[in-house]
Every structure is written in structure tokens, then in C-alpha cells.
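[Meeting: bench + compute handoff]

Bench side (C.D.) handed over the final construct sequence. Compute side (W.E.) agreed to return the predicted structure before the next meeting so the bench team could plan truncations. Sequence as handed over:
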Amino acid sequence: MEIKRMRHGGLSSKAPKDLIEIVTTIAWVASGHHAAVNFGQYPYGGYFPNRPTIARINMPTEDNSEEGWKFLLEKPEVVLLRCFPSQVQAATVMTVLDVLSNHSPDEEYLGQLAEPAWEEDPLVKSAFERFNGKLKEFEGVVDARNANKELKNRNGAGITPYELLKPFSDSGVTGKGVPYSISI
């Protein structure tokens, strides 16, 4: 209705399938997309060698000096440790990522609970139950793929299971769960 009232250039004549696409895009960006980008930050970036936010010195490839290369070849671990952020810098970033990746105890997840008004309308209630069932089915697919030893990108030393788009989560930093909304 707002699109029609606000006179957004010809959008008032859009077909229902166009409206469905628009609403789907808005719902995806405000739920699944945000969850995938947001809640995976700490599990990956909280271990700062995965994603250092600052380098205290240039790597020898950037300085390109004979002395730097020689030292890198003799003691690569020392060069790497000198490059990494300080403990204070790393702890600050880890704290920020923890805050951004944390689910609150009262978080509401997409498709978890029906609104009371939805329970009154059999058609809406049925649609919600199908949606909730599809989310649980999707969660099962993710779990099955994580358990499949033939999927090399899901198994092996140092490889954590993919859980970013699993629909539901406990509170805290879990790396999963798709909340109803974006909040910080």
C-alpha cells in the first residue's frame, strides 16, 4: 500500500509475484543474510590469526629487503609474531566480535513461535506450521551434510561444521540461529 501511496515510479502496477519477490528479498536481508554475516564473526575472527585486524610491521614481501627475507627464512615464527596485533589489540577485537556474535537469552528466531493472531486464522496457522516444518527439515539437511564424511569441505582436521544458517540457537555465541530481526 505504501508503494502505491508514495508514487514510487510505476511500482503500483506490479504483479503479486513481484511483490512476493520484494518481500522475500527484504525478509532474507533482515534475517538469513544478516545472521550468516553477523553470527559467524566470533567463531572465525575471534581467533585472531584467522583474521588479524592490524599488522604491527610489514611482512618482508612488502618491505622487499635482503635483510628482511633472510630473517624470514631463518625465523618465520618470529616475523609472524612481530606482525600480529598486540594482546590488547587482539583482545579488543575479540570483545567486539563477541558482542556482535552473541544471541540474547530472549532472542526470537525466524519460524520458531507463531504470533497469537496467526493461531486464530486456520490458513495462516497452517502456512506457519509448514514454514516451521521446512526450517526443521533444513536444519536436518545441514546436520546430515555435516555428518557426511565424504564431503571433504565439512570434515577433517581443523574444519568446523557449517552451522551459520541453522534456524534456531541457544543464547550466547553459537555461530547459528536466524533471528526475526537485526539488532545489536
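W.E. noted at the follow-up: The chain has two domains: 18-39+104-177, 53-102. C.D. will use this when planning the next construct.
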